[in-house]
Structure prediction request, 205 residues.
Amino acid sequence: MEPFKTHTGIAAPLDRVNVDTDAIIPKQFLKKIDKKGFGQHLFHELRYLDYEGTKENPDFILNNEPYRKSTVLLTRDNFGCGSSREHAPWALDDYGFKVIIAPSFADIFFNNCVKNGILLVQLKSKEIDELFDYVQKNKGAKISADLPSQTVTAGNKKYSFKIDDFNKECLLKGLDSIGWTLQFNEKIATYEDKIQSQRPWLVRK
Prediction:
């Protein structure tokens, strides 16, 4: 996982509430355990007019330039609700999204995104409205996210967001749950040696 500090990219406005994980990545594509390759199926039922995914929906934002290259997603309340599938952030990341901005997110989805290096920015509904207005009036506008300062910049306006210290540190260091644990490898090894000498009956041989 790559460390996240700052990112600037074209913002795609997805003006929908309650976008669930099945809309983000439909269940029929959950056949792999590898994280790569899910991006082509992101928002499948919204992006395509046919089941096979050969006919693009011209009305969907990501099927229009310059939003095909968007790396910032601007959306509405309760994004990522539904199941706990980690494939949803895998698909978003594989497509190229690095930052998602919304008034609220489903908790499990939020945590899964952090574990996959995606920054989720939660702003007030009024601030989200302002961002939508800016992006829609300025086609192809870019939004910048700065994690160290916890700010988002669009045009000449800057917004502050909150993030808990643990998630912030994991993103800044590029650490998922396993990576975080491995920081303490020496302490873990010391503890295991201690247990082996003091309580050998607990150690499988």
